[in-house]
Write a structure and sequence with these properties.
The complex is a heterodimer.
Chain A (H helix, E strand, L loop, with lengths): L14 E5 L8 H11 L3 E5 L12 H15 L2 E5 L22 H17 L4 E3 L10 H22 L3 E3 L10 H10 L6 E6 H7 L3 H9 L3 E6 L19 H10 L5 E4 L8 H38 L4 H12 L18 H13 L5 H13 L3 H17 L5 H16 L3 H7 L2 H6 L2 H13 L10 H4 L2 H16 L8 H4 L11
Chain B lengths: L2 E3 L9 H10 L1 E7 L10 H12 L1 H7 L4 E6 L18 H5 L4 E8 L5 H17 L3 E4 L5 H15 L6 E4 L6 H7 L2 E5 L8 H11 L4 E4 L11 H11 L4 H17 L36
Parallel strand pairs in B: 1-2, 2-3, 3-4, 4-5, 5-6, 6-7, 7-8
Helix pairs in contact in B: 8-9, 9-10
Classes of the chains: A alpha/beta, B alpha/beta.
Chain lengths: 502, 292
């Protein structure tokens, strides 16, 4: 969101880099030059083919010349070790730290530490590996802890940081798993955490923000990419489910000062284009992240003020419009701000969500009724979005809050203001509104030609009766010779599959 | 051509509209009590509104040579707000006032238990005060809502001939006709009905017990839709007498059952001139400032 009165966007505290595993069709010096051109100031260097052979005879000379090139470019570097067939040309990522026999892996990781020391790299990042078939997790953990203990000692001697990367499907697949490993080793100072923000939408229970916060000050390396929720597939920004502005805002909140590098290991065929588009997406995302941070600060100040003096709420709530502006929250998908609300609707909604932290349920209910009852349409949308925030953040709201929320939802659904009806069909309605009223809310949106993308849990709550209502509506429109809104089809039962031949 | 618009919300319209209505032939109309777009939150809001319908708005219409009548009710949408429901206790005193020609609009919006309750209570009032009933059919769930409306009317004991079921279209006109109630059609620029569809319905179902209205209000609507429907009827081969029946005699017959229709020409009204600047209503005038 864009704040009307925000300060100019501050510089990122971390360095933006790009992984060389996304540049395998370019020689390393060329890749570095292209990245510098685009404005990156770090590189995540994956050891092995085709860029830097860790076992080359002239490794020292290569490292020396690479370091001086990095110095010329002003680049920071992290060492990545996820080369697929470096140690075993037939089996990807084998041998792994969880395998019975892992000598080659350990030798490689020790060499990675040597290289990190030689390049004055920020850290060496590595993963645990997939547990071999017929190996118990206990055995895997035993192998992993003893081998990582060895590496930790070795790296300490070289003054190098290690960062364990959780990978979906591997023995260590979440930040929690890394923290467990670290704890079993007595929390060694040079054993840190790598977080790939794409992985988070696949495996982290608390999402990107939760995972980053959990890593906290132990975060030593970040990989940036997008990813769908259901598959470990590294995608360009905007093609998956990652909330990039939120991830960047969380890094800012943590004051993360390390390297955050784009990780697109399957996109070398279009590396220059992706390097360019990725940094553009990161810059846009950072602007959005700055606005998120700004909102959080306002939220903090506002809730503190209201906690100290309840009487300030009315005014803070009303003036949020001036503070946050009236533009659409998601201008591309919803230029009118009807479906997802405006920037100030969003801020007001967050504020309502924040009241829950300190207002007892009866006072919260009273505040909701008063803010809605005395509010203008925009404030009312804010209250409705706030009900959504409350419903989303808590699996079961206190009865008195639900009663107040249902009354306001019913009132809003009776209006003919599309933005109020849309705001009333959100997560609170999905969780608490009776089925009859909920169906009428959906039909009303159809009638008002408001996209059903504004309805929370549409597929979960839609039923045969709603399909019947939608079919009647379509019939009435057809009888009138009028067009039938596209979204009606979301509610109709799927057409029967008739056999095409006998 | 004389026109009676049996359903138009003049409170939401301008004096230009009154002038245009008069010019198109409208000499009488009925303004049903409904909601204001902005939901009401208390009984007092209804009281002032009802008083305005019977006071200021009648006066305003008369300035333009038009006889204004009203129907009074708690509308179905606001019957859902417990803060508004007590207005039901105030409604009886309005039902005996001059110019109140029906109980309405009542009926269904979202078909809730609260709407059932308000609908039944107001049908009882119509029986008690011997007034016709204007029933609004829902915007959504129109067919299901019309079925339920007719069931409730049947159970109430109100004669079907005392009831107009409004905002009909091709999908529900047949069941209303079969029930013996009056059939109301709202002609809108885009939604509800248009002139050509109206003509087609008149061809199929005849002109008996059909009322055509503009239902013009604060939404996108056109107060001259009665006149344009009349033109469409003539163009389609209906006679001037058919037009007079649908657009004048039918509404007069229906609302005349109240004994409260006033259809004499407005005394002293000069259709070529502006409203009499000396006329006022409780110290107010429709004129802004001094006439040049």
């Amino acid at each position: 969101m864009t704040a009307t009165t925000s300060a100019p966007t501050l510089a990122m505290p971390f360095s933006l880099g790009y992984g060389t595993n996304g540049f395998t069709d370019h020689p390393l010096p060329v890749a570095l030059e292209l990245l510098a051109e685009q404005g990156y100031d770090a590189v995540a260097l994956t050891l092995g083919h085709p860029h830097l052979d860790p076992f080359a005879e002239d490794l020292d000379a290569q490292l020396q010349s690479l370091r001086s090139r990095l110095d010329e470019l002003g680049f920071r570097v992290v060492i990545e070790t996820g080369t697929r067939f470096l140690l075993d040309p037939r089996h990807k990522h084998r041998p792994a730290l969880v395998d019975e026999e892992a000598t080659a892996r350990l030798a490689f990781l020790r060499r990675a530490v040597d290289i990190a020391a030689g390049l004055k790299a920020e850290c060496v990042s590595f993963f645990s590996g997939i547990l071999p078939e017929e190996t118990s997790p206990e055995t895997g953990w035993q192998r992993l802890t003893s081998r990582v203990a060895e590496l930790v000692d070795y790296a300490r001697g070289k003054n190098v940081l290690l960062a364990v990367e959780p990978e979906p499907g591997m023995l260590v697949q979440t930040v929690s798993d890394v923290l467990r490993l670290r704890s079993e080793l007595g929390n060694p100072d040079n054993l840190r955490v790598t977080v790939d923000i794409g992985h988070c939408v696949v495996v982290e229970p608390d999402g990107v923000r939760g995972a980053l916060l959990q890593a906290g000050p132990l975060l030593a390396n970040v990989q940036l990419d997008d990813m769908p929720v259901h598959a470990h597939e590294h995608l360009p920004f905007g093609e998956g489910a990652v909330d990039l502005p939120l991830a960047l805002a969380t890094l800012a909140e943590l004051d993360y000062r390390g390297v955050a590098a784009v990780e697109l290991p399957r996109h070398s065929h279009d590396a220059p284009g992706l390097a360019s588009r990725s940094i553009a997406a990161l810059r846009t995302g950072w602007e959005a992240a700055a606005a998120i941070r700004e909102t959080e600060r306002w939220l903090q100040e506002s809730t503190t003020a209201v906690a100290a003096d309840r009487g300030t709420l009315t005014r803070i709530f009303a003036t949020a419009g001036r503070r946050w502006g009236r533009g659409p929250l998601h201008p591309d998908a919803d230029p009118a701000g009807v479906l997802f609300g405006t920037t100030s609707d969003h801020a007001r909604g967050l504020l309502i969500g924040g009241l829950r932290e300190f207002l007892p349920p009866d006072e919260l209910a009273e505040a909701l009724l008063a803010l809605y009852g005395r509010g203008d349409s925009a404030e009312r949308r804010g209250v409705l979005r706030g009900l959504g925030a409350l419903a989303t953040s808590s699996p079961k709201l206190p009865a008195v809050v639900v009663t107040a929320g249902l009354r306001l939802t019913a009132e809003a659904l009776r209006t003919n203001e599309s933005s109020l009806v849309a705001a009333a069909a959100g997560p609170f309605a999905a969780a608490y509104l009776d089925q009859h009223s909920w169906r009428h809310a959906v039909l009303k949106l159809i009638f008002m030609e408001v996209s059903l993308s504004t309805v929370a849990d549409l597929q979960e709550r839609a039923d045969d009766e709603l399909a019947r209502m939608a079919a009647d509506f379509a019939a009435e429109r057809a009888a009138a010779g009028r067009t039938i809104p596209d979204d009606v089809h979301l509610l109709l039962p799927p057409p029967l599959n008739h056999p095409t031949s006998s | 051509m004389r026109i009676f618009d049996p359903h138009i919300h003049m409170t939401s319209r301008t004096t230009n509209d009154y002038e245009a209505l008069y010019a198109s032939g409208v000499r009488a109309l009925v303004e049903p009590a409904f909601w204001l777009g902005q939901p009401r939150t208390n009984v007092g809001s209804f009281i002032d509104y009802f008083d305005a319908l019977l006071g200021w708005e009648r006066f305003r219409a008369a300035q333009f040579g038009i006889r204004h009548h009203a129907t009074i009710a708690l509308n179905p949408k606001e019957a859902n707000d417990p803060r508004c429901v007590p207005v039901l206790d105030e409604i009886p005193r309005y039902l005996v006032k001059e110019g109140v020609v029906a109980v309405g609009e009542i009926g269904y919006d979202s078909m809730t238990p609260a709407e059932d309750e308000a609908f039944s209570r107001q049908l009882e009032l119509a029986l008690e005060y011997a007034l016709p009933v204007m029933v609004h059919t829902p915007h959504r769930e129109k067919l299901a809502g019309t079925h339920r409306t007719l069931d409730v009317v049947r159970e109430s004991g109100v004669a079907p001939g005392m009831v107009v079921v409004d905002h009909l279209n091709e999908t529900n006109v047949g069941i209303v006709k079969d029930a013996g109630a009056w059939m109301g059609f709202s002609i809108y620029p885009d939604t509800k009905m248009d002139e050509q569809r109206m003509v087609a319905i008149l061809r199929t179902y005849g002109t008996d017990k059909v009322l055509v209205n503009s239902a013009a209000d604060w939404g996108r609507s056109d107060p001259l839709k009665t006149s344009s429907t009349a033109s469409a009827m003539l163009a389609a081969g209906f006679t001037a007498d058919d037009v007079d029946k649908v657009l004048w005699r039918n509404p007069v017959e229906f609302y005349g059952q109240s004994g409260q229709l006033i259809l004499d020409p407005v005394p002293g009204f000069d259709e070529a001139g502006l409203p009499d600047a000396s006329a006022g209503f409780e110290g107010n005038s429709v004129l802004r400032g001094v006439r040049a």
